[in-house]
From TrEMBL:
Start and end residues of each Radical SAM core domain: 56-263
Gene name linked to the record: mftC
Cell membrane found in the keyword field: no
NCBIfam families per the UniProt record, alphabetical: mycofact_MftB (TIGR03967), mycofact_rSAM (TIGR03962), rSAM_more_4Fe4S (TIGR04085)
Annotated GO MF terms: 4 iron, 4 sulfur cluster binding; catalytic activity; metal ion binding
Name this protein carries in UniProt: Mycofactocin maturase MftC
Keyword set, alphabetical order: 4Fe-4S, Iron, Iron-sulfur, Lyase, Metal-binding, S-adenosyl-L-methionine
Species of origin: Solirubrobacter ginsenosidimutans
EC number: 1.3.98.7, 4.1.99.26
Swiss-Prot/TrEMBL cofactor(s): [4Fe-4S] cluster
Lineage: Bacteria, Bacillati, Actinomycetota, Thermoleophilia, Solirubrobacterales
Gene3D superfamilies: Aldolase class I
S-adenosyl-L-methionine listed as a keyword: yes
Length: 418
């Protein structure tokens, strides 16, 4: 059955893009941002997760960090951003990437950094992407979202904005993201009110008690709340011990998500919590190299945005293009093979939890075949006692720091990042 026959059979409108896949097709509605799956009758059996684990023709969730430059210096930055890297992709190279994503039918990209809006060609690249049928979701600290830009975004159907905020109060937020960053984010949200933007929160030990407050802030601005797990990646490794939620708090997050999960986006952040008993909404597997990957500012392709380390480096788009890396790299082929459960194989919750997050295990020094450091049964904590944490192999921090107590208010960096 060809794609157009599938489109008719599934009664999909003309605004829905269809991408052929082994099991049928992936359908993405650019209006509702809804992703769905059209399966051939002959392949209607079997879980979609299994199909995902074998990898897709192109990523569903492609993160593209446009620059390592940033005007803040968040203590948990997953990419250790700060200074621009002189090797960053040029405007022409970035446009060539977009052309390739269009050919591969990557429906949208999650653009981040660094702070992507500090790139002089940022808005030009956003316009180029949407003109080439690649939707854009970009994450920002809000510092460059003024009334004029908000108005532009309001009129652009294919661009979604995500404002980062890690505390529902300035005190909690600014301890992580820097002094003044709470006010900056709130000002941006005021401009964006009613545009349906997303409010993105990394859950930490300091803000678990504020989950209801984050929801209230999102509701007040007509935004959708997105919660992300803190991973020990980038500078997150320096603060993971002090900031990652305690065992008791993980249970609170789980209960909260059970109650609100349908209204909150979580990506693949919390599938390890399924080991408490119920599966939560979201992607319930590690998609690294299978449905997820990262293009970093210099064109390196990693298995996942939280795995910036040479171990997870699949190739560089400057060599043979992104499609080649995605489809041919040895690393991605390996990740699409069935993974060993190791010490988790005897756990009754393995089918739900899948051993948790590869990046969290790697950077805390745990074996990839084995429990997540935040295993809800406590097996991760036991294993951590003898583990040696690893550091990301890339660091563009402006000021290197030792572990920062969360009560210390960090000043935003005032050096030019570009
Ligand atoms: S390594 Fe962790 S963050 Fe990356 S895709 Fe897997 S589960 Fe998600
Ligand atoms: S032992 Fe492994 S599979 Fe079981 S809950 Fe812990 S991380 Fe998940």
């Amino acid at each position: 059955m060809d794609v157009e026959t599938l489109r008719r059979a599934a009664r999909l409108g003309a605004d829905t893009a269809l991408r052929p896949e082994r099991f049928g097709a992936l359908a993405y509605d650019f209006g509702t941002r809804r992703l769905s799956f059209v399966r051939r009758r002959s392949q209607a059996r079997g879980a979609l997760n299994e199909e995902f684990e074998r990898g897709l023709d192109a990523p569903i969730c492609l993160t593209w960090e446009l620059t390592y430059a940033c005007n803040l210096a968040c203590v948990h930055c997953l990419s250790s951003s700060g200074r621009r890297d002189p090797r960053e992709l040029t405007t022409q190279e970035a446009k060539a990437v977009i052309d390739e994503l269009e050919r591969m039918q990557v429906f949208y990209v999650n653009i981040g950094g660094g702070e992507p809006t500090v790139r002089k060609d940022f808005w030009e690249l956003v316009e180029y992407a949407t003109a080439h049928h690649v939707g854009v979701k970009f994450s920002t600290n809000g510092s460059r979202i003024d009334a004029h830009r908000a108005q532009w975004l309001r009129g652009n159907d294919y661009v979604d904005v995500q404002i980062s905020l890690d505390g529902a109060t300035a005190q909690v937020n600014d301890a992580v993201r820097g002094e003044g960053s709470y006010d900056t984010a709130i000002r941006a949200m005021e401009h964006l009110k009613g545009t349906g933007f997303k409010l993105s929160v990394v859950i930490t030990r300091e803000n678990v008690a504020q989950l209801d407050d984050f929801k209230a802030i999102a509701d007040h601005f007509g935004a959708q709340l997105r919660l992300t797990r803190l991973r020990p990646s980038g500078r997150g490794a320096d603060v993971w011990d002090t900031l990652h939620p305690t065992q008791q708090q993980q249970r609170i997050v789980y209960e909260w998500l059970l109650e609100h999960g349908q209204q909150v986006l979580t990506g693949d952040s919390f599938f390890h919590l399924a080991a408490y008993g119920q599966t939560l909404p979201g992607l319930n597997l590690c998609g690294a190299g299978r449905v997820v990957c990262l293009i970093d500012p210099v064109g390196d392709v990693y298995a996942c945005p939280f795995a910036i380390h040479e171990t997870f480096l699949a190739g560089n788009i400057r060599e043979a293009g992104f499609a080649h890396v995605w489809r041919e790299s040895d690393l991605f082929r390996e990740l699409r093979e069935p993974q060993a459960a190791g010490a988790c194989s005897s756990c009754g919750m393995y089918d739900a939890c899948r051993g948790g997050c590869m990046a969290a295990k790697f950077f805390t020094g745990l074996p990839l075949a084995g429990p997540d450091p935040e295993c809800v049964l406590g097996h991760g904590e036991d294993a951590l006692a003898t583990a040696t944490p690893r550091k990301s192999s890339v660091d563009h921090s402006i000021r290197r720091r030792a572990m920062v107590p969360v009560t210390v208010v960090e000043r935003p960096c005032n050096e030019s990042p570009v």
